[in-house]
Amino acid sequence: MQGQSQQQAYDRGITIFSPDGRLYQVEYAREAVKRGTASVGIRAEDGVVLAADKRARSPLMEPESIEKLHKADDHVGVASAGHVADARQLIDFARRQAQVNRLRYGEPVGIETLTKNITDHIQQYTQVGGARPFGVALIVGGIENGEPRLFETDPSGTPYEWQALSIGSDRSDLRDYLETEYEEGVSTDEAVGLALDTLAQSNDGELSPDGVGVATITVDDPEYAERPVDEIESILDERDLLATDEDEADDENADEE
Q1: Given the residues 15, 37, 113, 158, the one annotated as active site
Q2: Kind and range of the H or E element at 42?
Q3: By C-alpha distance, which of 12, 27, 31 is closest to 167?
Q4: How many CA atoms lie within 13 A of 166 on its CB side?
Q5: What are the phi and psi torsion angles at 105 (to 5°)?
Q6: CA 91 to chain CA centroid, nearest Å
């Protein structure tokens, strides 16, 4: 009984390390991220690609209301996985930081600087009593001094820089696929195709144009831009990833079950 009470103390107290040096609430937050639908980020030679699985839980839900891709600044995009409400709070924080940097220094915020500001904010919630960690991971991508940069934030408050990564459900499988298929020097258009191929790995090899979001930021035109549905549909058709009406009906029936 005494051992169980000690275990519960480590579970409930965010500021208490377990004897083996773990913060259980942070690890539980990572588990919350794994329950979210997948998002993918790829750094290309001439830009950054963000893609997200945003399938609706019901055919009655408006696809536009599912928020997985966000514009943090003109040259910065963010994809999320995990608790959407937590993601919204961090996106608002990132936008304020980007605006403050423009007002204070008269220039766009650096991608690495912005990511570390976000992770510093996240880290505070791992060592303050009466709070909980953010149950979300973010992919922060954009153009900094003419170079594409791609970062990940973790519920522990640690930033990582990547060439290509996935967050959310099936992360390990999608990362293995990216490690096999990703090549340095790919173009932005090629990276868009690779991102959709990667997301399809966790969707039986097929995707619906309404159920996926794609955003790009290029070196030549460093402006965050989301690809329209008809363009995504065309790319999915070209790559033989387009879900049929029968497959979409099966997905809806599975959601109802």
Answers
A1: 37
A2: strand 39-43
A3: 31
A4: 28
A5: -115, -10
A6: 11
Pair of tokens at residue 169 = 């459900």
Distance CA 46, CA 185 (A): 8
CATH (residue range 33-56+67-256): 3.60.20.10
Task: Give the pLDDT confidence of 49-59 residue by residue, as tens digits.
Answer: 999 999 888 88
Q: How confident is the model at residue 14 (pLDDT cuts 50, 70, 90)?
A: confident
Question: Quick one: which H or E segment has residue 181?
Answer: helix 171-181
Does the active-site annotation cover 216?
no
The C-alpha atoms of residue 34 and residue 10 are separated, in whole angstroms, by: 22
pTM of the model: 0.90
Taking only the tens place, the pLDDT of each residue in 115-167 is 999 999 999 999 888 889 999 999 999 999 999 999 999 999 999 999 999 99
Strand order in the sheet with 147-153: 69-73, 76-82, 136-144, 147-153, 159-161
Please list the alpha-helical segments (H only) found in the chain.
Answer: 2-12, 24-34, 84-105, 111-124, 171-181, 188-200, 229-238, 245-256
Tokens representing 237 are 């058709």
Q: Where are the domains of the chain?
A: 33-56+67-256
